[in-house]
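PROTOCOL LOG
Step 1. Enter all chains and additional molecules of the complex.
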Amino acid sequence: MTAKPDFSKGNGLLPAIVQDAESGEVLMLAFVNEEAWEKTLETGKAHYWSRSRKQLWQKGETSGHVQLVKEIRLDCDLDTLLFKVKQLGGAACHEGYATCFYRRFEGGDLRIVEERVFDPKEVYRK
Amino acid sequence: MTAKPDFSKGNGLLPAIVQDAESGEVLMLAFVNEEAWEKTLETGKAHYWSRSRKQLWQKGETSGHVQLVKEIRLDCDLDTLLFKVKQLGGAACHEGYATCFYRRFEGGDLRIVEERVFDPKEVYRK
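Step 2. Run joint prediction.
Step 3. Record the structure below.
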């Protein structure tokens, strides 16, 4: 029997937490359906399902900031994934930060606590 | 203006990644609605919305394994939360492991790669 996430849950769309395999920093969260799961296994590169664009995407297909999946963990309920990755380009966030979680909530305010790694205007110009 | 997560998204239910504030280990994922958010801020203890039981719950209310929230990060889209916590009792998972992600996916199999911290039958007996 082949183990896999339980895609009968979450309307077939499960959250994947993405963590830097070396530093342990949490980089982002995205959603994975069965197609994205299969593509990720097949290629070793993180694939997700975009809920806004309603399509499969490979992380980094525009920016080049591909995520090489080093390890996959599944949670106790088999409905959440943890991808431990090597983040190419050093930044997961389309805003140019290493992590999407670059703002700390402090008593009602949001404070940027990370350094920008790249300029989004340079990377995403079309 | 008070910053907060964008509860207009995800039908008012946003994923919260829970990370050990010291070790950086990812412990679990749960969902937060506006009520759980307010309760978490008010008490400093992680509160979530249970999708299966359809009710607010404080993590650890049965097991005593409360999560003290040390830091909150919000992502670029304001629709995912990161709680950095001190996990009381040393274990977040109801299966008795420090992390819910105690199984590694290895070529179609799931392998337990963490040690059990407690016996669920002892902690959750009713």
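Step 4. Note key features.
Helices of chain A lie at 34-43, 120-123.
DSSP finds two helices and eight strands in chain A.
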